[in-house]
Design a protein that fits this description.
heterodimer, A: 354 residues, mainly alpha, 71% helix, B: 382 residues, ABC transporter involved in vitamin B12 uptake, BtuC, 14 helices, 2 strands, 70% helix
Chain lengths: 354, 382
């Protein structure tokens, strides 16, 4: 080991690899936590785009859900002064707030569905307008509510898996990664598996993919293209809603204007890099989030030696920008070989009955 | 577009003007109504005494704040000028079928370039300092637009994702430089030196700087470029139909790179405008709402250079008047974001509005090229 690390210049690369291998198991739960909103957002994208609707508005849907969950929790906290339960710290206020967040997300994706399916607006424009609207409305309401110096309803807490499991050699850290989590982060794995199976092994999945690849052929065999698209786009909103609720009710318990900071767009990149499959999207989300977690890892467990002095001399802002840079680079490297659903982004116009 | 031009008559001109302006005007009126409802409902949320005329008070303060005095009008122009550049940056990209949501990042990088050169030349003679500083803002902004353009042309990575990512990268670059090498040594807060002689001279009023004039010239310049030059023709052709453009011997990939660089340069001018015209230096929290506003301006102007001026003036006036509204009516400045979003929502839903209101003569609200969503999945241009 020391011999490898000692090689001039190249040794730094080995030191970096060694550091990453050493640091990943302890920070794996953090990586999963940063990946949660990305993976959920990407699931929203997969569901929409597999049915042929581009959804750029994931970011805005997330933001609106994050705000709604937080603000409903604030409103209900004094009404239900319940002590958090041991499991996930669930309180009635938190559950109702989560439902409200999901409701708003469904509503917003219904608007996007209407604009892109019925109005046949340009889907990227309508998604962008949803983002701008969500940013504006949440920013305004937040400014109003902040005057009352609100107290939040708290947040979901993480489950602590039995020590015996997380201490298992080799796989212990993987168990900790997926299960030492709050309810929303823990649900990601379930959603990914279920959606992957449904999309490629069920009648609904076949219909969805048919509508996204060749809507005219789907219509010919009796599939109602418009209905499938409406249903899937609206349902997809649930995932964006969960992603938003995660930000303001699980990984934190507050709301700041624009707190999604581009996660909806990194989610889209994860969807593309993951080739429009749920499992691929989760893996891509984990890749992006490990770079997000790297900055955190450096602050509490910096590497020693030469590498340590190099990495700590780089301005902290570099590590802030790193996930975004990685997203650009990976997207540019992968995108050409990743083929989208053929009818992605094309409004469907039913031919007039003759 | 291919119909022969009819003889000009006042009546036809009025009909054409109505066709262009009807939907934007309806959208603005509806948005102000929604804003009023939002104000009333936020009163209910906050409790306290309910004043049914608060929307009137708020809008009155907004108008007085934007146009109430000569200085207020000049300040409105000052707030308008970066939106003109930003709006042009979005609109020009739209013409080529590209969606540049990266104005915020290009704006910040352009401003950063202007600060670096402006501070370095702050004691040089004014014309030299200004020209070199503006060139730096254009260059750095253009480079920030060039990167997503190149990525799209080479790999097909869609500009909507890459430009948004660059927006966040730009924030980090700016924070790192302003709190690092550009920081005034010994200053308690991260702030750069003043740009000195590179600052735009004041031409009229208290704050009416040279940038306002440059903004108007930029509109004329972009209009000329798009409609009177070969590259402009190529941009518009590639935006309407890249296959036809390729068939005609144009190179759509090159057009993508050129257009994104041009858009970045225009956004860089917006950043330069704010640094040289208003702030004269930069703090690590430098940044405004120019990014989103520019998209709204371009869409409201139906991506036409001449339309950018009234659209930018509308949002510039709202931004300039908002602080008086906050002081006099207690309404947060974020109300402008709500109004802006409503305008856009109404515009995008205009097919419905047209049917409801039977506006047969009105042209559709959103006029973008049909290819924006087309290449979304990473299809490389021909």
């Amino acid at each position: 080991m020391d011999a490898l690390y000692g090689i001039p210049i190249l040794g730094i690369v080995f030191q970096l690899l060694g550091y990453i291998i050493a640091i990943v198991p302890p920070i794996a739960p953090i990586i999963m936590r940063s990946a949660t909103p990305l993976a959920l957002g990407a699931l929203c994208g997969v569901l929409c785009e597999r049915s042929g609707v581009v959804n750029i508005g994931i970011e805005g849907t997330m933001l609106a859900a994050a705000f709604t969950g937080w603000v409903v929790g604030v409103g209900l906290a004094p009404v239900f002064a319940a002590t958090p339960t041991a499991l996930f710290g669930i309180t009635p206020a938190l559950v109702i707030a989560l439902l409200a967040a999901l409701g708003v997300a469904l509503l917003i994706s219904a608007v996007h569905a209407w604009l892109s399916i019925s109005v046949r607006a340009d889907q990227i424009i309508s998604g962008t307008i949803i983002n701008i609207a969500a940013f504006g409305v949440t920013g305004y309401l937040n400014a109003i509510i902040a005057r009352a110096s609100p107290t939040s309803a708290g947040a979901f807490t993480a489950w602590a898996p039995p020590q015996a499991l997380t201490d298992l050699p080799v796989i212990g850290w993987i168990i900790a990664m997926f299960f030492a989590q709050g309810p929303i982060a823990m649900s990601v794995l379930l959603f990914v598996v279920v959606l992957q199976v449904l999309l490629f092994r069920s009648r609904w999945g076949l219909r969805t993919r048919a509508v996204g690849e060749h809507p005219k052929a789907a219509e010919t065999v009796g599939i109602d293209v418009i209905r499938v698209r409406y249903r899937n786009v609206i349902l997809a909103g649930l995932f964006a809603g969960l992603a938003g609720a995660f930000l303001s009710m699980e990984s934190g318990n507050s709301f700041q204007a624009g707190m999604t900071t581009g996660r909806g767009f990194i989610a889209l990149a994860a969807m593309i890099v993951g080739r429009w499959t749920p499992v691929g999207a989760l893996l891509a989300a984990l890749l992006f989030s490990s770079f997000q977690a790297l900055g955190q890892a450096l602050s509490f467990s910096p590497p020693g030696g030469e590498l340590g002095s190099i990495m700590t001399s780089i301005p902290a802002q570099f590590y802030d920008a790193l996930p975004y840079l990685v997203t650009i680079v990976v997207l540019a490297g992968v995108v050409g070989r990743s083929i989208p659903p053929a009818a992605d982004g094309q409004p469907y116009e039913r031919e007039a009955a003759t | 577009m291919t119909t022969p031009r009819a003889r000009w008559t006042p009546r036809r001109a009025a009909a054409a003007a109505w066709g262009l302006a009807a939907l934007p005007l309806i959208a603005i009126v509806l948005a102000l109504a929604v804003g009023a409802i939002v104000i009333l409902s936020s009163e209910l949320i906050l409790g306290g005494s309910f004043d049914p005329f608060l929307p009137v008070t708020a809008y009155r303060a907004l108008i007085v704040g934007a146009f109430g005095s000569f200085d207020a009008i000049v300040d409105t122009f000052v707030a308008t000028s970066p939106l003109v550049f930003g709006g042009l940056a979005v609109a020009t990209a739209f013409k080529a079928g590209l969606f540049n949501i990266g104005v915020q990042g290009q704006f910040l990088m352009g401003a950063l370039g202007a600060v670096v050169v402006g501070v370095a030349l702050s004691s040089q003679p004014m014309p030299i300092a200004i020209v070199a500083t503006v060139a730096a803002g254009i260059l750095v902004g253009g480079l920030t637009g060039f990167i997503p353009g190149l990525l799209k042309a080479v790999s097909g990575a869609h500009e909507v994702v890459t430009t948004i990512m660059l927006n966040y990268v730009a924030v980090s670059v700016l924070a790192a430089l302003v709190s690092g090498p550009l920081k005034v040594p010994g200053s308690p807060s991260p702030v750069t030196y003043d740009v000195g002689n590179a600052a735009y001279p004041i031409l009229f009023g208290r704050n009416g700087h040279l940038g306002i004039l440059i903004a108007v010239l930029a509109v004329l310049g972009v209009r000329w470029l798009l409609y009177r030059t070969t590259i402009g023709f190529e941009i518009r052709t590639a935006g309407t139909n890249p296959d036809a453009a390729a068939y005609a011997g144009m190179r759509p990939r090159r057009i993508i790179v050129v257009t994104m660089s041009l858009a970045g340069a225009l956004a860089g001018l917006a950043g330069t405008d704010v640094v040289l015209g208003v702030t004269h230096q930069m703090t690590s929290s430098f940044g405004t709402t120019v990014g989103f506003d520019s998209i709204a301006v371009a869409l409201l102007a139906r991506t036409e250079p001449y339309g950018i001026l009234p659209a930018a003036l509308l949002f510039g006036a709202m931004r300039a008047g908002a602080s008086l509204m906050q002081i006099q009516a207690g309404i947060p400045v974020e109300l402008i974001d709500v109004i802006q979003a409503t305008i856009l929502l109404v515009l995008v839903a205009t097919p419905v509005l047209r049917r409801l209101l039977r506006l047969r003569g009105a042209r559709s609200g959103i006029a973008t090229t049909p290819t924006i969503t087309r290449s979304y999945g990473g299809e490389v241009a021909p």
